[in-house]
# Entry
Amino acid sequence: MSQKATVKEDSTSVQVGGNLTVGLSFENCERIFNLLLLENMPKLEAIAQEKAVENVHELVRLTYQKLDDRVEKIELKKISEPDVQSTFNTAVQGVAKKGEKIDIDLLANLLQSRLESENDDYIDNCIELAVEIIPKLTNELLSVIPIIHFIQSMSISDQNQLNQALISLDKLYLSKCSEISFNKLKTIASTGAGELITINDSYAVAKLKNRYSMVYANVDGKFQGAIKVLITYEKLKLYKLTLTTSGEVIAIKMLEKIFGEISLKNFLIN
# Structure
């Protein structure tokens, strides 16, 4: 199968040859990304191109690895579609331009998710927007997103499992957020990952304590790690930001480091 696709303005299309219904070799995956990189090189004249090439090669490696790991859930022929190539193009531009300041592994996770066979248009659109958002956020600001999603939207009934999850959340993400300010929350909202809300501080804290009453009610010190996370969440006033669906997509993919594979379809479509 060979298809020449046309894509939206400012994006690059590449011709994909071979039978994609059989499989995607690392070489073919690398060729697609490198073609996109070469098309974008004129836009990168003021950038260290050596680092740009290094980042794209790392994106290739990670994306191929993730596709190979979940090959039974992937619809490889999608890679010939114009909107998919546009999303891959956005990812290539992001890693090429941002140097050390971008989470390449997270982008690779999203590219893998974009090719999953169970997706509908809604999920695909959310993933595409998430790919556009990630290059706009530092690792510090990205780390806020899974914290907000877990504390506001997810629940674990077992106290010990909840405690361990919150401790893992602290280790992976909250530990990077000590300097988060309201202006930084505004920056996250400006990218489309979240929305600022007006909420009374006392009400927000009471709501949090009610939601996590079983943690706060523990008096023997068993859940000090979890309480520390919730107190820091209060102190940083992270309750002033809620996530958009695209922000939730980013959060879910980041939370896979704690919980393993999470289906976007199961979490986003109720």
Notes: Residues 26-136 form one domain. Residues 49-69 form the longest helix (21 residues). Strands lie at 194-196, 241-243.
